Amino acid sequence: MKKFFTTLSNIWKIEDLRVRIINTLLFLLIYRVGSYVVLPGVDANVLDLQKNKDGLLGLLNMFAGGSFSRASIFALGVMPYISASIVVQLLGIAVPYFTKMQKEGESGRNKLNQWTRYLTVAITFAQAYGYVHSQVPENAQLITNAFMFNLITMLALTSGTLFVMWLGEKITDKGIGNGISLIIMVGIIAQLPGAIIDEFSSRVISGGGGPIIFIVEIVALMLVVMFTILVVQGVRKIAVQYAKRVVGNKQYGGVRQYIPLKVTAAGVMPIIFAQALMFIPATVGQFFPKMSTNSVLMALSNYTSWQHNLVFALLIIIFTFFYTAITVNPTQMSDDMKKNGGFIPGVKPGQATSSYIGGVISKITLPGSIFLAIIAIIPAFAGLFHVNSQFARFFGGTSLIILVGVVLDTLQQIESHLLMRHYDGLMKTGRIKGRSAVPTAAGTTPPAI
After folding, report:
1. Which CATH code fits 202-449?
2. Within the chain, which residue ranges are assigned CATH 1.10.3370.10?
3. For the segment 367-388, what is each residue's pLDDT rounded down to a tens digit?
4. Taking the model in full, what pTM does it have?
């Protein structure tokens, strides 16, 4: 405990770090206050706040910190920006024009950021149209002119998303970094107290098992978090030797370094892609009511069924290999290593090095994808034990991986400030390791989520 208070004191002594933390908290406070500002022309008193608690909309509502169900100006959150970032990243792999921009350094990144912003506006405007027509009932519309109501609310939603994106950039520049990721994390954490209270009420107050069952659930959640941390931080180090050069009286190179290859280089993206596909059966059932009684569709639509979880796990494994293949380029890594005079001991430079790195990536991606699949289906097992659906989401899936990754990144940022000014780190032994970025085909990194 004394070590903890000493670390807090050291953090407060560093003026730059203190200002960055305060700025981050203030920006996040603005975001949370804005999440309760209802869209103009919408009567919040008649909204069904329980409507978007489950399924894909429930997941979006969690990422938006509850703004989605409250018809807030921040209802769409930063998800349109994340979607635009992914699209631009994929274009950088498939389209030569965008690939060229990725290789142009700072000027190229600025151009890609502009393209991302333009695409964010287009995606947000399209999603705003769908949100207004599907989530805001007619009895909640205070403006009788349908055209004016649609226009005003769509502009408000688009402006809200752009403002949230601006807040994320300010947190990155003036705060402790990872602005967009921190905004998503705060939105997820905002749902945790309510979920815990609901679960406590159902177990203890309503007599759904008693306090012992509730304590067991909390312990199980802690164990799952620990397992997720191990998966997120897992790396396979490849030793790289750099040739020794003597220039004048100084020696350069001649040292051994390591390439850290992440066990889960694809991050949370495979779960997001697989989750989107798993909502197709339910969507088909909504558009074609006659097919909703089909046994296969019913099984795939039930997230607690073994058929749903088996297909979900297989899709995650497939998408993990796919996304790792398009974001991690062994040939580019081999070429960069060769240009800097580096080589892997016992492996010839060039194609042999590329093949060796590709083989290592393939070997570690399989267990990584299986671990991701296990984490993703844990909430379904929690549901089988009658855990509240809101609380079960924190036992795994997209939300837990995002929380763990962002918290580790933030702690790493704080620790780097402490060590740079010759203070002790946050831990007595070792270093906090965040999500070490793996170079992609164009030398950039996947969007942090």
Report:
1. 1.10.3370.10
2. 16-190, 202-449
3. 989 988 888 888 888 877 888 8
4. 0.78
